[in-house]
Amino acid sequence: MSEKDEPSGRQISNIVFDFGGVLLNWDPRLALEGFYPDGVIDMVLDRRDEWGFWRFNDLCDSGWSQEKILADYESDHGPAVAWVLRTYFDHLDRSLTSVIPGMDQLVRELSAAGLHLWGLTNASRESVDAGLEKFEILRLMEGIVVSADECLRKPDPLIYQVMLRRFRITAEQTLFIDDRPENVRAAQALGIHSLLFTGADQIKRDLRQLGIEC
Q1: In this structure, are 114 and 19 located in the same domain?
Q2: pLDDT 10s digit of each residue in the chain, 214 long?
Q3: In terms of Cα–Cα distance, which of 19, 14, 17 is closest to 61?
Q4: HEC profile of 142-189
Q5: Domain assignment present for 133
Q6: Which of 48, 97, 145, 213 has the fewest CB atoms within 10 Å distance of its CB?
Q7: Does residue 135 sit in helix, strand or coil?
Q8: What is the CATH number of the domain that holds 122?
């Protein structure tokens, strides 16, 4: 038994949260509003651009530095458009808009009940640091595994194994909550109890079914 898996009347003593879409709302558009016209923002955030914002956002979460991303982005889009992406990085905190409704209270209740709370997020280190500065709820986590730090992204099974070893917890006594089905399935394949997040009320019901009062 690991040191975080104390004996108790319940099987699950650790809850691991994804951040974006589970604990926090994220809207990259808000980092650019007020700096550029809507048409420019639409262009930069166009999901049809194969080597646009969304591809480089994934690479950022995978460990690419902002400067490496900006250099690569500029080689394809030119310096003027690359400066828009730099503006996004400079105002990243504005994209982290709010806590998902109901999750602040739920996380506090789980912490008060003695559960160990952790984070496992596909994100850049800069994004996580901005969230920690802005939202107290993230500071209730006992530890956070950040994809960019590990150069691994969910649903790669290895990042879940890193998380279990890093926190010294076992799959059997751990519950993972994420809003992406592929990430939930990957955790389940490793024997980690997992829930697909659709809202705070749903998670409360599911937790109660697992014997976790909240």
Answers
A1: yes
A2: 343 444 343 589 999 999 999 999 999 999 999 999 999 999 999 999 999 999 999 999 999 999 999 999 999 999 999 999 999 999 999 999 999 999 999 999 999 999 999 999 999 999 999 999 999 999 999 999 999 999 999 999 999 999 999 999 999 999 999 999 999 999 999 999 999 999 999 999 999 999 998 8
A3: 19
A4: CCEEEHHHHCCCCCCHHHHHHHHHHHCCCHHHEEEEECCHHHHHHHHH
A5: yes
A6: 48
A7: coil
A8: 3.40.50.1000
- The total of structural domains in the chain comes to 2
Instruction: Tell me the residue type at 202.
Output: Q
Amino acid at 30: L
Give me 119's structure tokens.
Answer: 């984070």
Q: Residue type for 37, please?
A: P
Question: How far is 151 from 157, CA to CA, in rounded Å?
Answer: 13
Residues 103 and 82 both lie in one domain: no
Q: To which residue do tokens 């319940």 refer?
A: 10
Domain presence at residue 40 = yes
Residue with tokens 């709010």: 98
Span between the terminal Cα atoms of the chain, in Å: 25
